[in-house]
TrEMBL record:
Protein function: Catalyzes the complex heterocyclic radical-mediated conversion of 6-carboxy-5,6,7,8-tetrahydropterin (CPH4) to 7-carboxy-7-deazaguanine (CDG), a step common to the biosynthetic pathways of all 7-deazapurine-containing compounds.
InterPro entries assigned to the protein according to its UniProt record, in alphabetical order: 7-CO-7-deazaguanine_synth-like (IPR024924), Aldolase_TIM (IPR013785), rSAM (IPR007197), rSAM_sf (IPR058240)
Keyword Lyase tagged: yes
Enzyme class: lyase
Name the UniProt record assigns to this protein: 7-carboxy-7-deazaguanine synthase
Family, per entry: Belongs to the radical SAM superfamily. 7-carboxy-7-deazaguanine synthase family.
Keywords: 4Fe-4S, Iron, Iron-sulfur, Lyase, Magnesium, Metal-binding, Queuosine biosynthesis, S-adenosyl-L-methionine
Binding site for S-adenosyl-L-methionine: F36, C37, D38, G71, S113, P114, K115
GO process annotations (BP): tRNA queuosine(34) biosynthetic process
The species this protein was found in: Sulfurospirillum diekertiae
Length: 192
């Protein structure tokens, strides 16, 4: 059984797959309590759903891309669920803070957003995303290098962009072109 907070259909607003129509499955729970978290639903009510019940809910949507998000999905061993969705030809992405990469190893794509910049993992993901504000200690991420895409994402408000952080991140990426800007397009477009 999965602790599901929400299932919805939208576009991916972040990272390498920005703009891709996707089905989002938001799971309950997180191992962290970040002050800048823009998603509080993972702390509220949830439904316990079987794999079949989740499949029944996502089948009406035309997309074949599923994004498992939270909270923090890797607090659960999701490999069986990911394998199940892949058997129905879904491509499965997971958004994680890196709590336990082995719990999501079956995913087609993993987006890693570390919250502790003093301990950044090197393996287990396909892209990395740093959430940055104008007050962030960016010297810590300047020391990080990878052959995988490294995104800088402005720390935004819950429901809209933070223009000062966006401007800071645009200038930061221009000064350090090893990074790629990811702006949370869905917040600019006003979609879920």
């Amino acid at each position: 059984m999965l602790k599901v907070v929400d299932i919805f259909y939208s576009i991916q607003g972040e990272g390498a797959h920005v703009g891709v129509p996707s089905i989002f499955i938001r799971l309950y729970g997180c191992n962290l309590t970040c002050s800048f978290c823009d998603e509080f639903l993972h702390k509220g009510e949830y439904e316990s759903l079987s794999f079949d019940e989740v499949l029944t809910r996502i089948k009406p949507y035309p997309a074949m891309n599923v994004i498992i998000t939270g909270g923090e999905p890797s607090i659960y061993n999701l490999n069986g669920f990911i394998d199940y969705l892949q058997a129905y030809m879904y491509a499965v992405s997971v958004e994680t803070n890196g709590y336990n990469f082995s719990n999501i190893a079956s995913a087609n794509w993993v987006t890693y957003s570390p919250k502790d910049w003093d301990k950044i993992e090197k393996y287990g993901y396909d892209e990395i995303k740093f959430v940055v504000s104008k007050e962030s200690a960016v010297e810590k991420i300047l020391e990080f290098s990878s052959y995988k895409p490294i995104f800088i994402q402005p720390q935004n408000e819950m429901d809209r962009p933070n223009k000062e952080n966006v401007a800071f991140c645009v200038e930061f990426v221009k000064e350090h072109p090893q990074f790629i800007l990811s702006v949370q397009l869905h917040k600019f477009l006003g979609v879920e």
